[in-house]
């Protein structure tokens, strides 16, 4: 009788080892093979982009082949493809010219321009060269005059506007003139700041401004932004690993956060550079992140797109630069938000039509307005589908070429190319293959360069007719022979019902390539619930080059789910996340994983983890705090744990303005005492997208609640380099092996 417990313990230990037999050194080694830096070298004829020649009867492209980098010429009229030039001859003459040994299929030519298919202009390192493709004679081209980010040359190349000491200046020939005199640090002219610029406060680094101004087509008028920084606020970072010395340095960057009332604002001043007259534009000051710059309808009429705090209104506005007066052309409001991430509009200087997209009928569609009067003309596209891109507007034929998803059978996220007349008639499918299509239309409107793929279909590159969609010629197919030999298997696409038991929800399942259905596998939810996009890949590269494939090789089943509130479906579907980012799609994620586990019993729903970056980092932590009965382990990187901790535009778009109590209710800071599972947080300490203070403050709240967790701050890493940091990748693998697989991870595995 006394032996029974020992037998039971032995059985349990044996079962555990059998259940989770992976997570060992060999699995880490296999996972490493599938990381982006290794797998990129194993695929060929991928990432092909067309460069149209002249009107578009031919094009050239470059791509990585098994030989190296190859350049090709595609003659569409004659349905022929050949090398753009003799690679051997080209390498020989360029080696001789530069004094460097260059390989035939290792030429890194930039800024290529083919003239008459006989002369090739390009940049090679610091050389600007031209090569005659008949004689292969090389000639040097003159370096064009370079302008700094503080300068803006006029269209006729005769004038240069520039900023200096917070003021605007004009150089006209040899004459230099100061256009403003009252600029200062608080009220300055043309002084835009790059999103990526961070200032070293410790060394009193000089601000790096970029000119924000717009020349009229005839080079007479200049619209200049006037920045009001009286109430500008900054975010700060602590660089613990300076380039020189041992003293840590403080960096800052100009950034409003959600709900800020004190922030940088911008208005506009117009300069007539012929008369010297200054004209005030009557557009009121607006937050800088809501402005989209100016374009020109004519020499005296400019237009701009403007949003307002909370993103419930947008306007297309015309400005008369002779008087400075403005008028709205198209104005749109919504109870939730008008989405700048979906919006498309087209204005042509020679046409009266404004092509405008909107979700006002419940789906993202194309509409037409009259530019002069602002009157609504007609809705161009209709139906339960989503317009994603306007590829070309043919104003002469009154035809639009556009990509949309949801109008064909199958995966509603696959985009297809269509054409349609301005009046909404004659909608025609031009890319019929069941796949995700990206398309480029030739300048003459005759041809379409179509790149289509699925996660189980390598990229296909074809040229088709823009008239009827028929394939004219095959250009290339991605070569995946190497990864097939490595054992690659396509992930599985799936469809389940969402939380309402009615709405179809889509995602992907990644399994280990040595998958054994007789075993049991912990499940990891790869998450990103930011409403501007989806997490599930739809292209071949997206399904191959990611963090999910390597993670699965460790011994996990990795699942992606695009739940209610995510992008590219109906407005109703999308609006589930409005003022509700704390939902994180979790009810759909949990139901999807449980439903899949009924079909696939090897998915162990008692051991479910979750990981994500940025908004996905918020998700991973939030899932552990709000659904501890389901999610047991989470890895959160660069998480915006409170939507007031990073920037203003993104949360104010999806959470609204002002930042009221719902921000508190959905903040991870205020839920810290609910942590039950195992949590690892990671953040780069130089992240100026999601400030590292978000994770540090989250750690403080967890400490106050006396919760166990782990935090890694990566010195010198920003938002992107944190995600791709190899030490972090290994620590993420370790964390899931230790706490989800309940095994000891290989000690200090080094990813090369």
UniProtKB/TrEMBL annotation:
<dbReference type="GO" id="GO:0008236">
    <property type="term" value="F:serine-type peptidase activity"/>
</dbReference>
<dbReference type="Pfam" id="PF00326">
    <property type="entry name" value="Peptidase_S9"/>
</dbReference>
<protein>
    <recommendedName>
        <fullName>S9 family peptidase</fullName>
    </recommendedName>
</protein>
<dbReference type="InterPro" id="IPR029058">
    <property type="entry name" value="AB_hydrolase_fold"/>
</dbReference>
<dbReference type="InterPro" id="IPR001375">
    <property type="entry name" value="Peptidase_S9_cat"/>
</dbReference>
<dbReference type="InterPro" id="IPR050278">
    <property type="entry name" value="Serine_Prot_S9B/DPPIV"/>
</dbReference>
<feature type="domain" description="Dipeptidylpeptidase IV N-terminal">
    <location>
        <begin position="130"/>
        <end position="458"/>
    </location>
</feature>
<dbReference type="InterPro" id="IPR002469">
    <property type="entry name" value="Peptidase_S9B_N"/>
</dbReference>
<dbReference type="GO" id="GO:0008239">
    <property type="term" value="F:dipeptidyl-peptidase activity"/>
</dbReference>
<dbReference type="Pfam" id="PF00930">
    <property type="entry name" value="DPPIV_N"/>
</dbReference>
<dbReference type="GO" id="GO:0006508">
    <property type="term" value="P:proteolysis"/>
</dbReference>
<feature type="domain" description="Peptidase S9 prolyl oligopeptidase catalytic">
    <location>
        <begin position="551"/>
        <end position="740"/>
    </location>
</feature>
């Amino acid at each position: 009788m006394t032996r029974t417990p020992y037998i039971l313990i032995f059985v349990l230990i044996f079962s555990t080892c059998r259940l989770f037999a992976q997570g060992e050194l060999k699995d880490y080694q296999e996972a490493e093979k599938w990381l982006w830096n290794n797998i990129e070298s194993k695929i060929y004829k991928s990432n092909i982009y067309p460069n149209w020649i002249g009107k578009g009867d031919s094009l050239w492209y470059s791509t990585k082949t098994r030989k190296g980098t190859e350049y090709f010429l595609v003659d569409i009229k004659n349905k022929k493809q050949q090398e753009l030039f003799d690679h051997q001859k080209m390498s020989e003459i360029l080696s001789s010219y530069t004094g460097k040994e260059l390989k035939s299929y290792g030429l890194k030519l930039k800024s290529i321009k083919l003239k008459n298919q006989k002369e090739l202009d390009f940049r090679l390192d610091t050389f600007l060269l031209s090569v005659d493709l008949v004689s292969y004679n090389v000639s040097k081209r003159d370096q064009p005059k370079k302008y700094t980010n503080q300068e803006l040359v006029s269209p006729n190349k005769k004038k240069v506007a520039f900023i200096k000491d917070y003021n605007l200046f004009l150089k006209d020939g040899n004459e230099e003139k100061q256009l403003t005199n009252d600029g200062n640090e608080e009220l300055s002219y043309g002084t835009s700041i790059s999103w990526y610029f961070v200032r070293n406060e410790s060394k009193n680094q000089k601000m790096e401004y970029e000119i924000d101004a717009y020349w009229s087509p005839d080079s007479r008028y200049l619209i200049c932004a006037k920045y009001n920084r009286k109430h500008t606020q900054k975010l700060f970072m602590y660089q613990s690993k300076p380039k020189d010395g041992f003293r840590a340095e403080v960096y800052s960057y100009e950034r409003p956060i959600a709900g800020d009332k004190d922030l940088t604002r911008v208005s506009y001043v117009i300069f007539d550079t012929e008369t010297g007259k200054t004209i005030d534009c009557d557009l009121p000051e607006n937050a800088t992140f809501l402005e989209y710059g100016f374009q020109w309808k004519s020499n005296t009429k400019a237009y701009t797109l403007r949003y307002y705090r909370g993103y419930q209104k947008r306007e297309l506005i015309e400005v008369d630069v002779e008087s400075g007066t403005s008028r709205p052309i198209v104005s749109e409001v919504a109870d939730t938000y008008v989405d700048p991430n979906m919006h498309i509009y087209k204005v042509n200087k020679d046409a009266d039509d404004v092509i405008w997209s909107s979700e006002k009928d419940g789906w993202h569609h194309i509409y037409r307005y009259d530019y002069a009067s602002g009157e609504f003309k007609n809705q161009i596209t209709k139906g339960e589908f989503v317009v994603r891109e306007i590829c070309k507007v043919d104003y002469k034929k009154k035809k639009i070429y556009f990509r949309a998803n949801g109008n064909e059978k199958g995966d509603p996220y696959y985009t297809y190319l269509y054409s349609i007349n301005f009046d909404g008639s004659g909608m025609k499918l031009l890319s019929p293959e069941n796949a995700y299509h990206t398309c480029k239309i030739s300048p003459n409107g005759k041809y379409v360069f179509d790149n289509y793929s699925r996660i189980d279909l390598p990229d296909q590159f074809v040229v088709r007719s823009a008239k009827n969609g028929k394939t004219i010629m095959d250009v290339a197919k991605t070569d995946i022979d190497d990864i097939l030999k490595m054992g690659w298997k396509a992930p599985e696409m799936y469809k389940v019902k969402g939380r309402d038991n009615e709405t179809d929800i889509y995602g992907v399942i990644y399994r280990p390539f040595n998958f054994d259905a007789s075993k049991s596998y912990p499940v990891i939810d790869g998450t990103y619930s930011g409403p501007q996009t989806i997490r599930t890949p739809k292209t071949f590269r997206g399904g191959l080059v990611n963090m999910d494939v390597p993670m699965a090789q460790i011994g996990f089943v990795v699942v992606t789910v695009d739940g209610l509130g995510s992008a590219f479906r109906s407005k109703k579907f999308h609006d589930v996340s409005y003022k509700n980012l704390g939902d994180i799609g979790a009810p759909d994620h949990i139901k999807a994983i449980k439903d899949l586990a009924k079909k696939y019993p090897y998915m162990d729903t008692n051991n479910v983890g979750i990981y994500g970056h940025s908004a996905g980092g918020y998700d991973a932590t939030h899932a552990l705090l709000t659904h501890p009965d389901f999610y047991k382990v989470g890895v959160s990187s660069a998480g915006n744990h409170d939507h007031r901790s990073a920037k203003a535009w993104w949360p104010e778009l999806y959470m609204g303005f002002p930042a009221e109590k719902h921000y508190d209710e959905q903040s991870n800071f205020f839920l810290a005492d609910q942590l039950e599972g195992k949590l690892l947080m990671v953040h780069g300490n130089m992240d100026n997208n999601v400030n590292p203070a978000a994770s540090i403050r989250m750690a403080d709240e967890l400490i106050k609640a006396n919760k166990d967790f782990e935090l890694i701050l990566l010195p010198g890493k920003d938002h992107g380099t944190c995600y791709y940091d190899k030490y972090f990748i290994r620590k993420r693998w370790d964390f899931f092996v230790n706490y989800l697989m309940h095994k000891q991870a290989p000690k200090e595995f080094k990813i090369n």
